[in-house]
Amino acid sequence: MECQPPREAEGLKTRVPLTLEEYAAGITIGLLGLITFANVVVRYLTDFSFAFTEEISIFLMVLVALLGGSSVMAKGGHLNIMFVVDRLSPERRRRVRIAAHALSVLMFALLAIFGARMAWDEYRFEVTSPGLGLPTWYYTVWLPILSLAICGRAVGALIRIWRRKP
Question: Which domain holds residue 75?
Fold first, then answer.
């Protein structure tokens, strides 16, 4: 079974262009590839390892996941059980999609709130990372920011579904 984005994702027009997330994710993947490539080359040519870059790589992977989640949410491509949802009537499918988007808004709003509290605590208590000794809030501040972006994309998708009559 092939997974495809919803038909309404084709030619989708949003207030905030989707290219914002897509370019940021592409740049992030490029940086991740460069760091990994440099680490492998240095490890094989010398006895030195860029092990400290692991924390940057993990941060970049989380960043790509959140950026991708924001783009997919705007396109209405969030997870659902296609086997069940595709067998529903158009009106019931619409209701399920509205409920799923509303719950996504709630979940990412909570993630933004608790992520902001975590970043604030790390800032306030001056927590540093073990590998590079950087303040950890440099990494965690992006969780609430991108969670709000996903929340906004989910609200936009919810409004589009709500306005569209079956």
Answer: 17-163
99, 91 Cβ separation under 8 angstroms = no
Ramachandran bin of 78, using left for φ above 0, alpha for ψ from -120 to 50, beta for the remaining angles: beta
Count: domains in the chain: 1
* CB contact set of 56 (below 8 Å; sequence gap of 6+): 35, 132
4: left (phi over 0), alpha (psi -120 to 50) or beta: beta
Per residue in 72-126, pLDDT tens? Answer: 888 877 667 777 888 899 999 999 989 999 999 999 999 999 999 999 999 999 9
Residue located via tokens 């994710």:
25
Global pTM reads 0.84
> Structure tokens of 32?
């991740």
